[in-house]
Amino acid sequence: MDAIGYLRRLQSEVGPRRAGTPGEARARAWLLGVLGEVGVLAEEREYAFLGSPLVRYAIAWVRNMALFVFLLFSRQLDSIIVLGGVVLHQLYSSRLHPRLMLRLARTRSQNILASLEKPFSEHLDEPQRPTLLICAHYDTPQNLPRWIVRMIKKMRSVGPLLSMTMLTLFAVLFLMSVFNLLDMLFGVGSQALTALSTFWIKVGYWIMVAVFVPQLLLITIYILDLLLREHGDSPGADDNGSGVALVLEMIERLKKSPPANLETFFAFWGAEELGLYGSRQFVRQYGGRLDKGSTYIVNADVVGVGEKLLIHTGQGVMFRRKTDPEIVTALIDICEALDVAYLRSWESPISGGSSDHAEWAERGFSKAVSLLRENPKKLSWPARALAFLLRVPDPAQFDIEHVHTPEDTIDIIREDVLAATVDVCEAYVRWIDAHAAVEQGTGGGA
Ligand SMILES: [Zn+2]
Questions:
Q1: Which of 169, 201, 232, 319 is deepest in the core (most CB within 10 A)?
Q2: Ligand 1: centre distance to CA 404 (Å)
Q3: Count of structural domains within the chain
């Protein structure tokens, strides 16, 4: 069966499958059934996610609130302490917080893992060939409140503008700290310090308050809205029935002609929409036993609608992870050969969003990519300026018309888009297979 056939079956036989609902369990049973029909080895692998929405939102709220409150009192604090606080918060947010979430997770669920030849555990014990893992998340999201969908659209230009304002103010704080230090150590720079402090106290601080207070209010209203009103589940045809369907067709294609130089596996991740839990717990559990240089991850997420195929060139601003440039080139060549429109994109706050390749990339697997189809939007000028300031290599912004809404139904899926993405995926797998053969031939195994 081709991808669109699988997608139609999934949407009609299973329906919404949000993590923690009966639909999620139904989806797993359906997947195991289909994998049995196709005749591949499949198993469930347990992981944990943070199940309680109340706890999830409370943690998010406290985390935002802590920085706000600290900054609101910052006028009384020394500039060096303020700057230190901001840097610590950044470090915590990007490094510690994601790991803490994984550790707090207690609700059990299952990823589904399938293999073409060897069981995964056998491969882990004695890897003989490079690893190929083709994957997609099987859970679906909750619908976003309408006003948030409208707000996200506005945020394409307002968001980067606010970020730039804050960056400028932090630059002032940074300069104040520098002059403060110079004054303390060598007794110079006190005039500059006084001028900057006056600016900060009379103007800068109030600009910051004007930026932060509405943000805090919006976050609070958003969380209350999600907790108190019923928003229902998105049908999830594109996000991510399309990715699941792509993986299923790939299984059929690769079963007919398996890659000769790769150990091939397939994964269906759970609880992606709640914070990429399925894939992140999997990487945390097994990543240490896989070779970073010879593990290829191909993740499919929202591949049924958008005009352009996104090619991830890397992710992060403070801590940067670059995709292996050889892979980027290979994917671009494949898109050009197959006449599929593509767009280079570096994942950052400008692009927003993420997917199940992220934790792999974060932990140093540079051959981890997600295939996504998006309708790119012209970059707003604040986004352009912010990308320049933060030195984001391939900034991009997209539409979110249907994703996470009731409109994400089978009717909006474009068969040609889905089919073309499956072709790109197969061509990429064939490239990896040939590439692995060359590397093994000259480099002596993996
Ligand atoms: Zn998704």
A1: 169
A2: 9
A3: 2
State the DSSP H helix or E strand holding residue 104, giving kind and residue range, or none if neither: helix 97-104
Residues 193 and 222 in one domain: yes
Integer Cα distance of 419 and 424 in angstroms: 9
How many Å lie between the centroid of ligand 1 and the Cα of residue 303?
10
Select from 305, 337, 351, 4 the least CA-distant residue to 155: 351
Q: Say how many Å lie between the CA of residue 272 and the centre of ligand 1.
A: 7
Question: Is residue 29 situated within a structural domain?
Answer: yes
pLDDT tens, residue by residue, 41-79: 999 999 999 998 889 889 988 988 888 888 888 888 888
In 3D space, the residue among 245, 190, 273, 310 whose CA is nearest the CA of residue 17 turns out to be 273
Polymer length of the chain:
446
pTM over 0.90: yes
- Statement to judge: residues 294 and 350 lie in one domain: yes
Q: Closest Cα partner for 297 from 316, 271, 320, 324?
A: 324
Q: Which CATH number is 281's domain given?
A: 3.40.630.10
Q: Is the dihedral of CA 425, 428, 434, 439 positive or negative?
A: negative
**How far is the centre of ligand 1, averaged over its atoms, from the C-alpha of 151 (Å)?**
20
Identify whether 446 is part of a domain.
no
**Are 156 and 135 part of one and the same domain?**
no
Same domain, 239 and 341: yes
Domain extent at residue 11: 3-51+109-143+233-440
Question: Which of 206, 228, 250 is the last residue in one of the domains?
Answer: 228
Residue 29 contacts by C-beta under 8 Å, 6 or more apart in sequence? none
